[in-house]
Protein backbone atom coordinates (compact mmCIF):
# COMPACT_ATOMS: atom_id res chain seq x y z
CA UNK A 1 0.00 0.00 0.00
CA UNK A 2 1.43 3.39 -0.92
CA UNK A 3 2.12 5.78 1.90
CA UNK A 4 0.16 8.95 1.17
CA UNK A 5 2.15 11.49 -0.84
CA UNK A 6 1.66 15.16 0.00
CA UNK A 7 -1.16 16.80 -1.90
CA UNK A 8 -2.17 20.41 -2.25
CA UNK A 9 -5.28 21.53 -4.12
CA UNK A 10 -5.70 17.87 -5.11
CA UNK A 11 -2.43 17.73 -7.07
CA UNK A 12 0.46 15.41 -6.35
CA UNK A 13 3.58 16.98 -4.80
CA UNK A 14 6.83 15.04 -5.02
CA UNK A 15 9.64 14.87 -2.44
CA UNK A 16 12.77 16.58 -3.81
CA UNK A 17 15.60 16.60 -4.66
CA UNK A 18 16.00 13.35 -6.59
CA UNK A 19 18.69 10.87 -7.44
CA UNK A 20 18.00 9.54 -10.95
CA UNK A 21 17.90 5.78 -11.39
CA UNK A 22 18.97 4.48 -14.80
CA UNK A 23 18.93 0.77 -14.04
CA UNK A 24 20.87 -1.24 -16.63
CA UNK A 25 19.58 0.77 -19.61
CA UNK A 26 21.59 0.62 -22.84
CA UNK A 27 19.28 2.60 -25.16
CA UNK A 28 19.41 6.37 -24.67
CA UNK A 29 15.84 6.80 -25.86
CA UNK A 30 14.56 4.75 -22.94
CA UNK A 31 16.14 7.25 -20.51
CA UNK A 32 14.23 10.27 -21.84
CA UNK A 33 12.68 10.94 -18.42
CA UNK A 34 16.13 11.19 -16.84
CA UNK A 35 17.40 13.42 -19.64
CA UNK A 36 14.33 15.65 -19.35
CA UNK A 37 14.98 16.12 -15.64
CA UNK A 38 18.67 16.81 -16.24
CA UNK A 39 17.84 19.40 -18.92
CA UNK A 40 14.94 21.15 -17.17
CA UNK A 41 15.38 20.53 -13.46
CA UNK A 42 19.09 19.99 -12.87
CA UNK A 43 18.87 21.84 -9.56
CA UNK A 44 16.52 19.10 -8.32
CA UNK A 45 18.90 16.24 -9.18
CA UNK A 46 21.86 15.33 -6.94
CA UNK A 47 23.21 12.57 -9.20
CA UNK A 48 22.49 9.22 -10.82
CA UNK A 49 22.50 5.54 -9.89
CA UNK A 50 23.41 2.99 -12.58
CA UNK A 51 23.56 -0.80 -12.40
CA UNK A 52 26.16 -3.09 -13.95
CA UNK A 53 25.71 -3.21 -17.71
CA UNK A 54 24.28 0.29 -18.08
CA UNK A 55 25.82 2.23 -20.96
CA UNK A 56 23.64 5.33 -20.77
CA UNK A 57 24.47 8.22 -18.45
CA UNK A 58 23.06 11.68 -17.80
CA UNK A 59 26.55 12.96 -17.01
CA UNK A 60 25.56 13.67 -13.40
CA UNK A 61 27.68 12.33 -10.54
CA UNK A 62 27.33 8.58 -10.13
CA UNK A 63 26.67 7.49 -6.55
CA UNK A 64 25.07 4.97 -4.25
CA UNK A 65 21.69 5.45 -2.60
CA UNK A 66 23.37 6.16 0.74
CA UNK A 67 25.63 8.79 -0.86
CA UNK A 68 22.61 10.39 -2.53
CA UNK A 69 20.76 10.56 0.78
CA UNK A 70 23.83 12.14 2.39
CA UNK A 71 23.83 14.79 -0.34
CA UNK A 72 20.25 15.70 0.48
CA UNK A 73 18.23 13.50 -1.89
CA UNK A 74 14.76 12.68 -0.60
CA UNK A 75 13.72 10.27 -3.35
CA UNK A 76 15.05 7.87 -5.95
CA UNK A 77 13.29 8.60 -9.24
CA UNK A 78 13.19 5.95 -11.94
CA UNK A 79 14.31 7.87 -15.03
CA UNK A 80 13.64 5.04 -17.48
CA UNK A 81 10.62 4.52 -19.72
CA UNK A 82 11.28 1.07 -21.15
CA UNK A 83 9.04 -1.00 -23.45
CA UNK A 84 5.96 -2.02 -21.51
CA UNK A 85 6.80 0.23 -18.59
CA UNK A 86 8.06 -2.68 -16.47
CA UNK A 87 10.24 -2.70 -13.34
CA UNK A 88 12.43 -5.80 -13.90
CA UNK A 89 13.45 -8.15 -11.13
CA UNK A 90 17.11 -7.18 -11.65
CA UNK A 91 16.38 -3.65 -10.34
CA UNK A 92 14.49 -4.54 -7.21
CA UNK A 93 17.35 -5.18 -4.78
CA UNK A 94 18.70 -1.70 -5.61
CA UNK A 95 15.28 -0.14 -5.06
CA UNK A 96 14.96 -1.84 -1.66
CA UNK A 97 18.47 -0.56 -0.87
CA UNK A 98 17.28 2.98 -1.64
CA UNK A 99 14.35 2.59 0.72
CA UNK A 100 16.70 1.35 3.43
CA UNK A 101 18.94 4.37 2.82
CA UNK A 102 16.02 6.65 3.66
CA UNK A 103 14.77 7.52 0.18
CA UNK A 104 11.21 7.42 -1.14
CA UNK A 105 10.67 5.85 -4.59
CA UNK A 106 9.04 7.66 -7.53
CA UNK A 107 8.08 6.04 -10.84
CA UNK A 108 5.99 6.81 -13.87
CA UNK A 109 5.93 3.25 -15.20
CA UNK A 110 2.84 1.28 -16.15
CA UNK A 111 3.84 -1.27 -13.51
CA UNK A 112 3.07 0.20 -10.11
CA UNK A 113 5.67 0.21 -7.37
CA UNK A 114 3.05 -0.82 -4.82
CA UNK A 115 2.25 -3.97 -6.80
CA UNK A 116 5.77 -5.33 -6.27
CA UNK A 117 5.66 -7.32 -3.00
CA UNK A 118 9.27 -6.77 -1.89
CA UNK A 119 8.97 -3.01 -2.41
CA UNK A 120 5.60 -2.77 -0.67
CA UNK A 121 6.85 -4.78 2.30
CA UNK A 122 10.06 -2.75 2.64
CA UNK A 123 8.25 0.58 2.31
CA UNK A 124 5.73 -0.35 4.99
CA UNK A 125 8.49 -1.58 7.32
CA UNK A 126 10.58 1.56 6.84
CA UNK A 127 7.79 4.13 6.66
CA UNK A 128 8.79 5.24 3.17
CA UNK A 129 6.61 6.35 0.24
CA UNK A 130 6.08 4.50 -3.04
CA UNK A 131 4.82 7.19 -5.40
CA UNK A 132 3.37 6.17 -8.76
CA UNK A 133 3.10 9.38 -10.76
CA UNK A 134 0.55 7.96 -13.18
CA UNK A 135 -2.06 7.66 -10.42
CA UNK A 136 -4.42 10.68 -10.38
CA UNK A 137 -5.59 12.20 -7.10
CA UNK A 138 -8.77 10.85 -5.55
CA UNK A 139 -12.07 12.75 -5.54
CA UNK A 140 -11.41 15.06 -8.48
CA UNK A 141 -14.50 17.27 -8.75
CA UNK A 142 -16.69 17.70 -11.80
CA UNK A 143 -15.79 20.99 -13.49
CA UNK A 144 -17.97 23.96 -12.55
CA UNK A 145 -16.82 26.37 -15.29
CA UNK A 146 -16.44 29.25 -12.84
CA UNK A 147 -14.03 31.88 -14.14
CA UNK A 148 -10.94 31.99 -11.95
CA UNK A 149 -8.63 34.88 -11.17
CA UNK A 150 -5.09 35.05 -12.52
CA UNK A 151 -3.84 34.45 -16.07
CA UNK A 152 -3.32 31.18 -17.94
CA UNK A 153 -1.50 29.99 -21.02
CA UNK A 154 -2.06 26.55 -22.56
CA UNK A 155 0.09 24.84 -25.16
CA UNK A 156 -1.96 22.99 -27.78
CA UNK A 157 -0.78 21.00 -30.78
CA UNK A 158 -1.44 19.66 -34.23
CA UNK A 159 -0.51 16.20 -32.92
CA UNK A 160 1.03 14.34 -29.98
CA UNK A 161 4.73 14.32 -29.08
CA UNK A 162 5.91 17.44 -30.84
CA UNK A 163 6.91 19.87 -28.10
CA UNK A 164 3.99 21.02 -25.94
CA UNK A 165 5.85 20.27 -22.69
CA UNK A 166 9.12 21.85 -23.82
CA UNK A 167 7.28 24.90 -25.14
CA UNK A 168 5.42 25.36 -21.85
CA UNK A 169 8.65 25.00 -19.87
CA UNK A 170 10.48 27.45 -22.12
CA UNK A 171 7.67 30.02 -21.91
CA UNK A 172 7.41 29.67 -18.13
CA UNK A 173 11.16 30.22 -17.88
CA UNK A 174 10.99 33.28 -20.12
CA UNK A 175 8.14 34.75 -18.07
CA UNK A 176 10.16 34.21 -14.87
CA UNK A 177 13.21 35.92 -16.37
CA UNK A 178 11.01 38.93 -17.04
CA UNK A 179 10.20 39.08 -13.35
CA UNK A 180 6.66 37.72 -13.65
CA UNK A 181 5.01 35.49 -11.05
CA UNK A 182 4.60 32.21 -12.94
CA UNK A 183 4.09 28.48 -12.40
CA UNK A 184 4.55 25.65 -14.89
CA UNK A 185 1.55 23.33 -14.46
CA UNK A 186 2.44 19.75 -15.39
CA UNK A 187 -0.07 17.32 -16.89
CA UNK A 188 2.14 14.37 -17.90
CA UNK A 189 4.52 12.10 -16.01
CA UNK A 190 7.82 13.71 -17.07
CA UNK A 191 6.43 17.19 -16.61
CA UNK A 192 5.24 16.26 -13.12
CA UNK A 193 8.68 14.98 -12.23
CA UNK A 194 10.30 18.16 -13.57
CA UNK A 195 7.85 20.47 -11.81
CA UNK A 196 7.63 18.41 -8.64
CA UNK A 197 3.85 18.22 -8.86
CA UNK A 198 0.85 18.11 -11.15
CA UNK A 199 -1.88 15.80 -12.39
CA UNK A 200 -1.37 12.94 -14.92
CA UNK A 201 -4.24 13.89 -17.22
CA UNK A 202 -4.00 10.72 -19.31
CA UNK A 203 -4.94 8.73 -16.20
CA UNK A 204 -8.01 10.82 -15.28
CA UNK A 205 -11.49 9.49 -16.09
CA UNK A 206 -12.89 11.54 -18.95
CA UNK A 207 -15.81 13.07 -17.01
CA UNK A 208 -13.29 14.61 -14.59
CA UNK A 209 -10.71 15.97 -17.06
CA UNK A 210 -11.96 19.56 -16.94
CA UNK A 211 -12.34 19.39 -13.16
CA UNK A 212 -8.75 18.21 -12.85
CA UNK A 213 -7.60 21.13 -14.98
CA UNK A 214 -9.52 23.51 -12.73
CA UNK A 215 -7.81 22.31 -9.56
CA UNK A 216 -4.44 22.23 -11.35
CA UNK A 217 -4.66 25.99 -12.06
CA UNK A 218 -6.63 27.49 -9.15
CA UNK A 219 -7.50 31.11 -8.41
CA UNK A 220 -4.38 33.26 -8.33
CA UNK A 221 -3.26 36.87 -8.01
CA UNK A 222 -4.18 39.14 -10.90
CA UNK A 223 -0.66 39.23 -12.34
CA UNK A 224 0.13 35.53 -11.80
CA UNK A 225 0.55 33.24 -14.83
CA UNK A 226 -0.07 29.50 -14.91
CA UNK A 227 1.59 27.97 -17.99
CA UNK A 228 -0.23 24.68 -18.53
CA UNK A 229 1.39 21.76 -20.34
CA UNK A 230 -0.91 20.59 -23.12
CA UNK A 231 -1.74 16.99 -24.05
CA UNK A 232 -2.74 15.34 -27.31
CA UNK A 233 -4.53 17.33 -30.01
CA UNK A 234 -8.16 18.40 -30.22
CA UNK A 235 -8.47 16.71 -33.63
CA UNK A 236 -6.62 13.50 -32.75
CA UNK A 237 -8.99 10.53 -33.18
CA UNK A 238 -7.65 8.85 -30.02
CA UNK A 239 -6.62 11.67 -27.69
CA UNK A 240 -8.97 14.57 -28.36
CA UNK A 241 -10.83 13.94 -25.12
CA UNK A 242 -7.93 14.90 -22.85
CA UNK A 243 -7.15 17.92 -25.04
CA UNK A 244 -10.66 19.34 -24.89
CA UNK A 245 -10.96 18.69 -21.15
CA UNK A 246 -7.71 20.57 -20.56
CA UNK A 247 -8.88 23.43 -22.77
CA UNK A 248 -12.21 23.87 -21.00
CA UNK A 249 -10.83 23.38 -17.49
CA UNK A 250 -7.71 25.52 -17.78
CA UNK A 251 -9.69 28.43 -19.30
CA UNK A 252 -6.59 29.82 -21.06
CA UNK A 253 -6.34 33.52 -21.78
CA UNK A 254 -3.64 32.67 -24.34
CA UNK A 255 -2.75 29.52 -26.24
CA UNK A 256 0.31 28.65 -28.33
CA UNK A 257 0.00 26.13 -31.15
CA UNK A 258 2.84 23.59 -31.30
CA UNK A 259 3.71 21.97 -34.62
CA UNK A 260 6.42 19.89 -36.29
CA UNK A 261 7.02 20.99 -39.90
CA UNK A 262 7.17 18.03 -42.26
CA UNK A 263 4.92 15.76 -40.21
CA UNK A 264 1.97 14.70 -42.36
CA UNK A 265 0.15 11.99 -40.40
CA UNK A 266 -0.98 11.84 -36.78
CA UNK A 267 1.04 9.53 -34.55
CA UNK A 268 -0.50 6.11 -34.01
CA UNK A 269 -3.35 6.61 -36.47
CA UNK A 270 -2.13 5.85 -39.98
CA UNK A 271 -4.28 7.48 -42.64
CA UNK A 272 -5.30 10.49 -40.55
CA UNK A 273 -3.70 13.58 -42.02
CA UNK A 274 -2.30 16.20 -39.70
CA UNK A 275 -4.70 19.08 -39.09
CA UNK A 276 -3.44 22.44 -40.36
CA UNK A 277 -2.28 24.97 -37.80
CA UNK A 278 -4.93 27.40 -39.04
CA UNK A 279 -7.70 24.89 -38.31
CA UNK A 280 -6.27 24.18 -34.86
CA UNK A 281 -6.39 27.91 -34.12
CA UNK A 282 -9.98 28.15 -35.33
CA UNK A 283 -11.18 25.11 -33.37
CA UNK A 284 -9.32 26.12 -30.21
CA UNK A 285 -10.95 29.55 -30.31
CA UNK A 286 -14.42 28.10 -30.86
CA UNK A 287 -14.13 25.49 -28.10
CA UNK A 288 -12.10 27.65 -25.73
CA UNK A 289 -14.64 30.48 -25.77
CA UNK A 290 -17.03 28.16 -23.97
CA UNK A 291 -15.19 28.84 -20.69
CA UNK A 292 -13.17 31.96 -21.56
CA UNK A 293 -14.72 34.37 -24.03
CA UNK A 294 -11.47 36.36 -24.19
CA UNK A 295 -9.21 33.48 -25.30
CA UNK A 296 -6.67 34.37 -28.00
CA UNK A 297 -3.76 32.79 -29.88
CA UNK A 298 -0.33 34.09 -28.87
CA UNK A 299 1.60 32.48 -31.72
CA UNK A 300 3.22 29.27 -32.86
CA UNK A 301 5.96 26.98 -31.58
CA UNK A 302 7.71 24.93 -34.25
CA UNK A 303 9.80 21.86 -33.48
CA UNK A 304 12.60 22.29 -36.05
CA UNK A 305 14.99 19.76 -34.53
CA UNK A 306 15.21 17.89 -37.84
CA UNK A 307 16.34 21.04 -39.71
CA UNK A 308 19.56 22.96 -39.97
CA UNK A 309 19.72 26.40 -38.38
CA UNK A 310 19.45 28.35 -41.63
CA UNK A 311 16.58 26.26 -43.00
CA UNK A 312 14.66 26.56 -39.73
CA UNK A 313 15.17 30.32 -39.52
CA UNK A 314 13.98 30.83 -43.09
CA UNK A 315 10.89 28.69 -42.57
CA UNK A 316 9.90 30.41 -39.32
CA UNK A 317 10.40 33.87 -40.83
CA UNK A 318 8.24 32.96 -43.82
CA UNK A 319 5.52 31.46 -41.61
CA UNK A 320 5.56 34.52 -39.36
CA UNK A 321 4.77 36.68 -42.40
CA UNK A 322 2.14 34.27 -43.74
CA UNK A 323 0.33 33.80 -40.43
CA UNK A 324 0.74 37.35 -39.14
CA UNK A 325 1.86 36.06 -35.73
CA UNK A 326 5.21 35.06 -34.19
CA UNK A 327 6.59 31.65 -35.06
CA UNK A 328 9.57 30.38 -33.06
CA UNK A 329 11.41 27.27 -31.91
CA UNK A 330 11.81 27.70 -28.13
CA UNK A 331 14.84 25.40 -28.16
CA UNK A 332 16.64 27.73 -30.57
CA UNK A 333 15.62 30.89 -28.71
CA UNK A 334 16.69 34.18 -30.24
CA UNK A 335 14.67 37.13 -31.47
CA UNK A 336 11.88 34.92 -32.85
CA UNK A 337 11.26 33.38 -29.43
CA UNK A 338 11.42 36.79 -27.76
CA UNK A 339 8.70 37.95 -30.16
CA UNK A 340 6.55 34.93 -29.25
CA UNK A 341 6.94 35.68 -25.55
CA UNK A 342 6.00 39.32 -26.03
CA UNK A 343 2.96 38.35 -28.09
CA UNK A 344 1.78 36.00 -25.33
CA UNK A 345 2.12 38.77 -22.74
CA UNK A 346 0.62 41.55 -24.86
Features:
346 residues, alpha/beta, Rossmann fold, six-stranded parallel β-sheet, 17% strand
Overview of the molecule:
This protein is α/β, with parallel strands linked by helices and 346 residues long. It has two domains: 7-132, 3-Layer(aba) Sandwich (Rossmann fold); 151-345, Rossmann fold (3-Layer(aba) Sandwich). The protein is 34% helix and 17% strand. It contains eleven helices and 14 strands. The chain has helices at residues 32-40, 65-70, 89-100, 117-126, 164-177, 189-195, 209-216, 240-250, 277-288, 309-323, 334-345; strands spanning 7-8, 11-13, 18-23, 45-50, 75-78, 104-107, 130-132, 151-157, 182-185, 197-198, 225-228, 254-259, 296-302, 327-328. A six-stranded parallel sheet has the order 9-11-8-12-13-14, sandwiched between helices. A five-stranded parallel sheet has the order 4-3-5-6-7, sandwiched between helices. Helix 1 (32-40) runs parallel beside helix 6 (189-195), helix 3 (89-100) runs parallel beside helix 4 (117-126) and helix 7 packs across helix 8 (240-250). The model is unreliable at 1-8 (pLDDT under 50).
